[in-house]
Amino acid sequence: MRTPLIEFRQVSKRFGHNVVLDSVDLAVYPGEVTTLIGRSGEGKSVTLKLIIGLLWPDSGEILYRGKSVSRMKRAELKHIRREVSFMFQGNALFDSLTVQENIALPLREGFHANEATIRERVEQKMQVMDLEGTEEQYPSQLSGGMQKRVALARAMVTDPETVLFDEPTTGLDPVRKNSVLSMILSNQRDYGFTALLVSHDVPDVFYISNRIAVLEEGRTIYQGPPQDLEQKEHPVLQEYVNSQEILRNEIYGLQSSRFLERAFAGMREDPERREGALLVISLPQYQEIKEKVGQLMVEMLLGAISRAFYKVSQCGDQCKVARYGEDRVVCLCEPGSYDRDPDKVLQGVASELGSMDFCSSGVRQGKASFSVNGGWDRIGSHKSLFQLVQGIEQQKRILGSISCKGPD
Amino acid sequence: MSFSGGILPLSTNLFALLGRAVLAVLQELGGILLFFLRALISIFKYPFQVNKIVRQAYFIGAMSVFLIALVGLFTGMVLGLQGYYSLTKFGSEGVLGGVVALSLIRELGPVLTAIMIVARAGSAMSAELGIMRITEQIDALFTMGVDPIRSLISPRIVAAVICFPLLTALFDAVGILGGYLAGVSLLGVNSGVFLSQMDSLVVLSDAINGFYKAFAFGLLVVTICCYQGFYVHTRQGGHGAKGVSMATTSAVVFSCVGVLITDYVLTSFLL
Questions:
Q1: pLDDT of residue B251
Q2: Contact state of B139 with A90 under an 8 Å Cβ cutoff
Q3: Most A CBs within 10 Å: which of B143, B146, B147, B236, as the mutation test of the A interface?
Q4: Which CATH architecture has domain A246-404?
Q5: Which residue has the higher pLDDT, A317 or B106?
Q6: Which end of chain A lies in a sparser environment, N or C, as judged by fewer CB atoms within 10 Å?
Q7: More confident: A200 or A337
Q8: Helices marked H in A270-372 — which ranges?
């Protein structure tokens, strides 16, 4: 069994009456990227500060390479601090020092390196971080993204064994955010350091992390590989996993596919509710629409289908409209909840869509026409939701089409 | 005697309040003393921070020269004028040189120099350290394995110990020149009498005592100003920019009061 590089055992920390960490367990393994996620105020930054020694725990143990930090001598603690770098959320750059002096500071003050070594290391890091030409500038003269890169260069200049990143992408635009995350990952691959990252960039951090730890109400509710996180049923974990989908669905008034699965199972198991109907509207040319018109158009289209379902069926809470997969919206209706024939509901949805203008800006190339398919079936007791949806789609019933003009 | 209710008598509440206030003051003083001792011990740790000391000496000393000279000149001139009119009443205007020099060297020189440095450099130190604290620059130093007290406070203390006596000497010299200009050039006191009285009334111990005071004020002012800025985050009811402004105000007020109290204590011992 591997020994964690950093380990928290039942660590608690409170500020006055506010319990920030409550018996937290955490393991960070050498050479890996571990990301700590959690809502604001859950103690993520406090966790990093406990590791570096800026704060001390009220109870519990923090181990570094299997040895309790609280039992270490001052010299040992100093040695650990030389191995660990910290990148602050607000960068913590010295505003009265130039970029070059900021990056050189840990070498000059902490390591007392000679000037030739300092010059060489600083130049190399500035080159890696694409900061050439900013040597004599002050942090206030740089953009937010460049300041982050300076902070990153300063955190890496000592070639640390462990780097703690406290929300390294906060306040950055999506392009710069991606570039900072990829920079962290590429540096981690090149230099092999252990990284502990506090971030809100879900799901982006799932792709760069070997392990994820989730803090909720002062406790670690999950730690393990990101792919295992998806399988967990814990509602908070599911919120993180599906955070983008949840937002998108909330904007367009759609339920999640997981919610739909549960509602469907409930109806199928109840003999009185099996007579309910499942209506499906899909976009068979989903990929083509995405390529020619864009993802946003697809999202708007699915959102419009959802609204049209509610409007036409007039079944209110008795219907659950959800996104099922990337390219379809399904409507699960309780028996007796729809006064109108499902076929007429589908036709009504199609005519609602026909009156909308989805691609006013046109397609990227030529003209295009996209079909909208739809169908329905009773829920019954034999088929799973997936099988039922597949069966309906095999009918290949075209409800209508959306035409987009070419570029002006 | 027992109290059945939750409300204590007024006298008990007053004692409790007084006790809390005394404890808070003692805690603050203890904190300042420990802070000073840590900084003092760090001065002697290798490698010595010569560059930082020179930079701080430039900031505290060289950049205060004009202000100190200006204040010294006018203080000396006022002393010359006031002294002349007071001494004339007793027919003793001849001792003007001695009076001006003694007042400056023993009291006004060290005290006014310290207060001027508090206003110019002490407040700036407090604000700078306060901003460094709230923007996590001090925490950043710690994470780099650098002792922030050694790196930020010790050089300032050494620089203050060097600069305060030198600036006090400058203040005294320019002040005496001001007194000479007012007494001799403007009011017609004999130049030889002015200088000879100064020579006969001022002894070496006056100058040495003046420098002891300057030395003590240097330590006091820098410690108080740095402490206020360095621990701005622990201040009750003041965070961020407001905390820094409160710390700067406290630094100036406490330093000035501290200088005057220390001056009294030192004078009573040195006289």
A1: 96
A2: no
A3: B143
A4: 2-Layer Sandwich (3.30)
A5: B106
A6: N
A7: A200
A8: 286-292, 295-313, 342-354
> Encoding tokens for residue B183?
């007494």
Q: Which helix (H) or strand (E) holds A163?
A: strand A162-166
Residues of chain A within CATH 3.30.70.270 domain(s) are 246-404
Q: State how far the Cα of A122 lies from the Cα of A107, in Å rounded to an integer.
A: 9
Q: Is residue B39 part of a domain?
A: no
Question: Does residue A346 sit in helix, strand or coil?
Answer: helix
CA-wise closest residue to B76 among B41, B52, B51, B112: B112
What is the per-residue pLDDT for B61?
95
Structure tokens at A386: 């997936």
Inter-chain contact B139–A95, Cβ cutoff 8 Å? Answer: no
| CATH of segment(s) A6-236 | 3.40.50.300
Residue type (1 letter), A209: S
Which stretches within chain B are classed as H helix? 10-43, 50-60, 65-90, 96-102, 109-117, 123-134, 137-143, 148, 154-180, 191-201, 204-230, 240-270
**Predicted ipTM > 0.95:** no
pLDDT digit string (tens) for A26-39? Answer: 999 999 999 999 88
Residues of chain B contacting residue A49, judged by C-beta atoms under 8 Å apart:
139
Cα A48 from Cα A197, distance rounded (Å):
9
Determine the structural domain holding residue B130 and report its residue range. Answer: 49-270
Please answer whether residues A405 and A363 qualify as being in contact, where contact means their C-beta atoms are separated by less than 8 angstroms: yes
Total beta-carbon pairs less than 8 A apart between chain A and chain B: 47
Residue B178: name the closest of B76, B70, B71, B67 by CA: B76
Looking at residue B180, what is its pLDDT?
A: 96
Average pLDDT over residues A239-250: 74
Would you say residue B15 lies in a domain? no
Structure tokens at A53: 């020694």
What's the structural domain count of chain B?
1
**pLDDT the model gives residue A70:** 86
Least confident interval from A83-92, A333-342, B119-128: A333-342
Give CATH 3.40.50.300 domain extents, chain A: 6-236
With respect to residue B10, please indicate whether it lies within any of the assigned structural domains: no
Considering only CB atoms, which chain A residues are within 8 Å of B131? 95
Residue B187 included in any domain? yes
The pLDDT tens digits of the residues spanning A77-94 come to 888 888 999 999 899 999
Q: Nearest residue on chain A to B128, judged by CA atoms?
A: A96
Return d(Cα A55, Cα A138) in angstroms, integer.
Answer: 30
